[in-house]
Design a protein that fits this description.
The chain is mostly helical. It has two domains: 14-60, no CATH class; 65-130. It contains four helices and no strands. The longest helix is centred in the last third of the chain and has 40 residues, at 91-130.
Length: 133
């Protein structure tokens, strides 16, 4: 039986699990009736299993480097806005400063794009007008 999550396979089914549960309960009852601990605790094995489980979970839940990069960029932008807000006295003034930084390059790019489109259009008109019909 295959799980839908993470492509892991699920060992056994419900009947196998129920059978294992009943077997474990019978072993525990037998140990209690005879006054013997049914399970011996080996600290070394428990610590090894615990460390192995931690390593497996860490590998399974490792983060995305792309998501970490995006988060770091957003944190830097938020800190810059906070610094500007403190320097200018309000978030409104900080927003105006940021708009000024953004407006200049965008305006230059828009002007260049508009000029390039006009030149391309004029070149097409010139070529169309210079060829005989």
């Amino acid at each position: 039986m295959k799980s839908w999550f993470r492509g892991r396979t699920v060992v056994g089914d419900r009947a196998d699990g129920l059978e294992a549960y009943k077997e474990g309960r019978a072993d525990e009852r037998a140990g209690v009736e005879h006054g013997v601990a049914a399970v011996r605790v080996d600290r070394g094995a428990i610590n090894d299993a615990y460390d192995r489980g931690r390593r497996e979970e860490r590998l399974r839940h490792r983060g995305s480097p792309f998501l970490a990069l995006i988060t770091a960029i957003l944190v830097i932008i938020a800190l810059a806005v906070l610094v500007l807000a403190v320097r200018t006295g309000s978030f409104s003034n900080a927003g105006a400063v940021i708009d000024g930084f953004i407006q200049r390059p965008v305006q230059n790019a828009a002007d260049r794009t508009g000029n390039a489109l006009q030149n391309a259009g004029q070149n097409l008109k010139d070529r169309a007008g210079s060829t005989p019909p």
